[in-house]
From TrEMBL:
Stored Pfam families: TPP_enzyme_C, TPP_enzyme_M, TPP_enzyme_N
Assigned keywords, A-Z: Thiamine pyrophosphate
Domain Thiamine pyrophosphate enzyme N-terminal TPP-binding intervals: 7-114
Protein name, entry field: Thiamine pyrophosphate-binding protein
Keyword Methyltransferase: no
Family label: Belongs to the TPP enzyme family.
Positions of the Thiamine pyrophosphate enzyme TPP-binding domain: 380-524
InterPro entries on file: DHS-like_NAD/FAD-binding_dom (IPR029035), THDP-binding (IPR029061), Thiamin_PyroP_enz_cen_dom (IPR012000), Thiamin_PyroP_enz_TPP-bd_dom (IPR012001), TPP-bd_CS (IPR000399), TPP_enz (IPR045229), TPP_enzyme_TPP-bd (IPR011766)
Domain Thiamine pyrophosphate enzyme central: 191-327
Organism: Nonomuraea mangrovi
Lineage: Bacteria, Bacillati, Actinomycetota, Actinomycetes, Streptosporangiales
Length: 528
């Protein structure tokens, strides 16, 4: 192979892996390879005005496209800005390939400006983190990063690229990365153990998560649930893992308090866990929520998560799709199911807006849901039914809705993409609107504006109830009402047309205008 600078060769490697976009925010120590990028026809650069926004856009792009997304950060200061979003990506298993520059290996002992241990910073929020120290291994390390990011359980990876290493020549060939298949099926004996644990259960329960979506196992999951007659609960479930109108679907387990999970499992004599860890709460139970004598079967490709917190009876490190199909065949068909009664609709502003959107939206609508306290009303009118039609916030980081929708629209430009976020959450990454305008990304953004961190109000009230604390005024720090945030002027200042919707009569024209816009559009929906 002809020698060329490693800063040129990395773009050959990205092209070999089909990576055509870099999401980032530039910096001095990355200027060498960013200068080369300008001459690279096969690579586009999506500029964000802050690193958290760049990672959020890449996260949406990776989720919607089920492919690696390349993120460029600016050394330690940029990585520090991105840590919260990287945690979100790690919890959600997004295959991000994150690179950042350094001044150079030659300066390592100088403790100079911007010096930091980037690998140590990245390790807690990534699946894999490393640093290249020799030009002869730059492409090898990048291939390892792509492989690691894309191998289930997927997740973000980090590679530090010192400037002096990239300036040196390399003769490494650029060849496609190898992503190993983990589409494994348990041996027959293990399948029979699972069937024996589940068959005959009087009160079975299914807990499912995003490993189902990654495997494409939605139909197989429904078939097993029907064979068992088991209610299905989402656990760390942020994508479409089962049609949410299915008669057996019961909703999401709570993400805050372990008592909610225990209540869903009360009386269960068999539990099937597929494609998720248990349990996802911020305040989980330390004692097992599984009833005494309950048989537990856990299927996942992430062996670390199986029996991590509580023992299980049958532990299968296997592909959910193939394994559920085999279980469904062995269990046989279930009893006919009755359709669930329709949930009564409310008359809140969110109900009115979601109902109008449901009436007008084209086929193939994609929703990014960071609405949090407004989500129940949203889902009453727009229940997710098809894979790829719904993406939920995950991991606890606020601010994913606006950039996430931009990334989804970049990955799937033919789809109508609408993000719902909160007034507080939107302010974490509001500058992502500028990126949408710059690149003509016609995503839509709805800010559910209740002038508070309402979720904190709700969680605090739960805290009071648990501890017998008398109700009293909420902390002043939860209030966002003064000074009032003018989202319409803020959006317009970043180039996005916007309207405020504060009365029911304004809903219909706002939805019509939003869907008719040729570019991005924002609605400030007052929900108080």
């Amino acid at each position: 192979m002809t020698a060329r600078p490693a800063k040129n060769a990395i773009f050959e490697q990205f092209a070999a892996d089909g990576i055509s976009l870099m999401f980032g925010n530039p910096g001095t120590v990355e200027q060498g390879f960013l200068d080369v990028l300008e001459e690279t026809q096969a690579m586009g650069y999506i500029l964000a005005l802050q690193e958290a926004a760049a990672v959020g856009i890449a996260d949406g792009y990776a989720r919607a496209g089920a492919r690696p997304a390349l993120v460029q950060l600016h050394t330690g200061v940029g990585l520090g800005n991105a840590v919260g979003m990287l945690y979100q990506a790690k919890r959600g298993h997004s295959p991000l390939v994150v690179i950042a520059g350094e001044a150079g290996v030659r300066y390592e002992s100088m403790d100079s400006q911007m010096a930091a241990d980037l690998v140590a910073m990245a390790r807690p929020v990534t699946k894999y983190a490393t640093r290249v120290t020799h030009p002869g291994s730059v492409l090898r390390v990048l291939r390892r990063a792509v492989k690691t990011a894309m191998t289930p359980p997927r997740g973000p990876v980090f590679v530090s690229l010192p400037m002096d290493v990239l300036d040196e020549p390399t003769t490494e060939p650029a060849v496609p990365s190898t992503v190993p298949s983990k589409a494994t099926l348990p041996v027959p004996g293990e399948l029979e153990r699972a069937v024996a644990a589940l068959r005959g259960a009087r009160r079975p329960v299914v807990l499912m998560g995003d490993g189902v979506s990654v495997s494409g196992a939605q139909a197989e999951l429904a078939a097993v649930a029907e064979a068992l007659g088991a209610p299905v609960w989402g656990v760390d479930s942020s994508e479409l893992n089962i049609d949410t109108t299915h008669p057996l679907y019961r909703g999401q387990l709570g993400h805050m308090f372990g008592e909610h999970s225990a209540a869903a499992l009360e009386g269960a004599d068999a539990v099937l866990i597929v494609g998720t860890y248990v349990f996802p709460e911020v305040f989980p139970l330390l004692d097992s929520p599984f009833p005494q004598g309950c048989a537990v079967v856990h299927i996942d490709l992430d062996d670390y998560e199986i029996a991590k917190n509580f023992p299980v009876d049958v532990a299968l490190v296997a592909d959910p799709k193939a394994t559920l199909a085999a279980l469904a065949e062995r269990l046989g068909p279930g009893e006919p199911l009755q359709e669930r009664a329709a949930e009564p609709y409310g008359d809140t502003m969110m109900d009115l807006f979601a109902a109008e959107l449901a009436r007008r939206a084209p086929e193939g609508l994609v929703v990014f849901d960071e609405a949090l306290t407004s989500s129940p009303a949203l889902l009453r009118h727009l229940p997710p039914r098809l894979p790829g039609s719904y993406f939920l916030t995950r991991g606890g980081s606020l601010g994913v809705g606006i950039p996430g929708a931009i990334g989804i629209k970049l990955a799937r430009p033919e789809a109508e993409v609408v993000a719902f976020t909160g007034d507080g959450g939107s302010m974490y990454t509001i500058q992502a609107l500028w990126t949408a305008v710059r690149y003509g990304v016609a995503a839509r953004f709805v800010i559910c504006d209740n002038r508070r961190y309402q979720l904190l109000d709700d969680n605090l009230e739960q805290y009071w109830r648990e501890r017998g604390v008398a109700s009293h005024p909420h902390p002043e720090g939860f209030d966002l009402s003064h000074p009032e945030i003018d989202f319409v002027r803020l959006a317009r200042g970043l180039g996005v047309p916007a309207v405020k919707v504060a009365k029911p009569a304004q809903v219909e024209p706002a939805v019509a205008r939003m869907l008719a816009e040729q570019g991005p559009f924002l609605v400030d929906l007052v929900t108080t």
